[in-house]
């Protein structure tokens, strides 16, 4: 891939993301919420409109690019081939609805299955994290350093405690420094990317929840695997961890010791 193409595309995507600074407050002013699978699975006009606007942007400027996103059917998308955008228009919808804070927009661009560009836009705090293949990772345009190596005993771990059985939960608390959860897979992952958390794991994320993290992990020397330490398929996702290299193996060892988590 021509590197100028990537640089121009990155610029264009960042400009598009900043159009959301005007759109999101307007959408929130008339926010309406509905449920999907169950009463905890929420979607709002904010999620839907952001995704529609990105779909329109792609159709106008990059008609050969395809979109794989949460609020649409992806049955006809062959994500492993050609130009593919993975999108979670709002990650942390429950936080948007209940707290109006701690949610983000996730975008990741793959070419023939290889991650090339990634974006996690923390709109409530106006911080844009992005990564470009071979060029590193950035917060608001400033280079992010690889986090210092963090052993598990010094690490804050982030995960949904309701999906971990009592014995494993106790082992995780004992082995680590402490536990925190933001409730947005993208933003919990950002804390690992910036070195604030040691690891974040999710027992059942979808492809759009973890798509952007591949390139951040690659560029910063973090570990990103399944919960059994295997390579993740970006088109399928499933149980995942993004981790500081200093505690990845130790977290997986605790998780496997008593087999204690649910895949949901
Ligand atoms: C959810 C959030 C949450 C995670 C769930 C995701 P959504 O995404 O990232 O932190 O625990 O697995 O589904 O539904 O707000 O896009
Ligand atoms: Ca999500
Ligand atoms: Ca979402």
UniProtKB/TrEMBL annotation:
Gene3D superfamilies linked: 3.40.190.80, Fructose-1,6-Bisphosphatase, subunit A, domain 1
One BP term from GO: signal transduction
UniProt keyword annotations, A-Z: Magnesium, Metal-binding
Co-factor(s): Mg(2+)
GO molecular function term, any single one: inositol monophosphate 1-phosphatase activity
Residues the record lists as binding Mg(2+) 1: 70, 88, 91, 209
Coiled-coil intervals, chain numbering: none
Residue numbers binding Mg(2+) 2: 90
A Pfam family the protein falls into: Inositol_P
Protein name (Swiss-Prot/TrEMBL): Inositol monophosphatase family protein
Organism: Staphylococcus pettenkoferi
């Amino acid at each position: 891939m021509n590197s100028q193409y990537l640089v121009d595309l990155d610029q264009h995507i960042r400009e598009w993301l900043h159009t959301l600074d005007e759109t999101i407050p307007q959408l929130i002013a008339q926010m309406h919420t509905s449920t999907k699978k169950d009463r905890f699975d929420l979607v709002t006009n904010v999620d839907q409109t952001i995704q529609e606007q990105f779909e329109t942007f792609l159709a106008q400027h990059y008609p050969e690019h395809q979109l794989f996103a949460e609020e649409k059917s992806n049955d006809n998308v062959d994500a492993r081939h050609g130009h593919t955008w993975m999108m979670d228009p709002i990650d942390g919808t429950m936080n948007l609805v209940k707290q109006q804070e701690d949610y983000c927009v996730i975008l990741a661009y793959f070419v023939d299955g290889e991650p090339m560009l990634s974006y996690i836009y923390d709109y409530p705090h106006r911080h844009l994290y992005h990564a470009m293949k071979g060029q590193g990772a950035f917060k608001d345009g400033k280079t992010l350093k690889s986090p210092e190596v963090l052993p598990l005993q010094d690490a804050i771990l982030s995960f949904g405690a309701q999906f971990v059985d009592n014995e494993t939960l106790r082992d995780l608390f004992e082995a680590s420094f402490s536990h925190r959860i933001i409730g947005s897979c993208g933003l919990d992952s950002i804390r690992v990317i910036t070195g604030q958390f040691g690891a974040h794991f999710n027992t059942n994320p979808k492809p759009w929840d973890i798509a952007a993290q591949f390139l951040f992990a690659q560029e910063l020397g973090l570990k990103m695997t399944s919960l059994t330490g295997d390579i993740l398929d970006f088109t399928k996702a499933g149980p995942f961890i993004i981790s500081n290299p200093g505690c990845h193996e130790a977290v997986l060892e605790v998780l496997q010791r008593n087999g204690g988590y649910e895949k949901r």
